[in-house]
Amino acid sequence: MSDQTTGDKFPIARDDRNGPASGIRTSDTTTDGIRIQVKSLYLADRSSPREGQFYFAYTIRISNVGVETAQLLTRHWIITDAEGEVQEVRGEGVVGKQPVLEPGMNFEYTSYCPLKTNVGTMHGSYTMARSDGQLFDATIAPFTLAVPNALN
Q1: Under a CB-based contact definition with an 8 Å cutoff, are residues 148 and 42 in contact?
Q2: 8 Å CB contact between 94 and 109
Q3: DSSP track, 8-65
Q4: I need a surface site. Which of 3, 102, 130, 133 has the fewest CB within 10 A?
Q5: What are the pLDDT digits (tens) for 69-98?
Q6: Which residues sit opposite 125 in a β-bridge?
Q7: What residue segments make up the domains of the chain, in order of their start?
Q8: What's the pLDDT tens digit per position in 104-151?
């Protein structure tokens, strides 16, 4: 697991080498000046398909593209597998942190998601607080978790 606050560009997988056949999936959305970019990847070396265990890594970059400072307080995930089983995950911060993002700053971290099926989706939100105390939810757009070549 890793996290960092940087100014580097987030690597978006768009070419044939990193397209759907490789298992890399992406999403990108902005809410009230908070941009959330996601990249997910199937982890074949940690998975046991015969036992119904499929592991995926996802890297999230949260960027403040607005004009006001914001702090990430909580997370809410909705994870759905190919059989329609839904799990909700709520908690404080991300990877043990509640980053404060001034305008132009970003925070990046990688985490993991196990599924019982070879395909699933994740989406959710981060509850953010402005420096004046105003709360808002920054949307995490849906993204796919899929074994390479599992989807056409």
Answers
A1: yes
A2: yes
A3: SPP----SGGGSGGGT-EEEEEEETTEEEEEEEEE-GGG-BGGGTBEEEEEEEEEEE-
A4: 133
A5: 999 999 999 999 999 999 999 999 999 999
A6: 76, 139
A7: 3-142
A8: 999 999 999 999 999 999 999 999 999 999 999 999 999 999 998 777
Asked whether the beta carbons of 94 and 72 are under 8 A apart, the reply is: yes
Q: For residue 64, what are the contacts with CB-CB under 8 A and spacing of at least 6?
A: 33, 34, 35, 70, 101, 102, 103, 104, 105, 106
How is residue 43 written in tokens?
């982890």
Domain boundaries 3-142, CATH class: mainly beta
Question: Distance between CA atoms of 107 and 53, rounded to whole angstroms?
Answer: 29
The token duo for 95 is 């990877």
Residue type, 92: E
Give the distance from CA 54 to its chain's centroid: 17
Residue with tokens 């099926």: 117
Return the C-alpha torsion angle 60, 65, 66, 69, nearest 10.
Answer: 60
Q: What is the pTM of this model?
A: 0.83
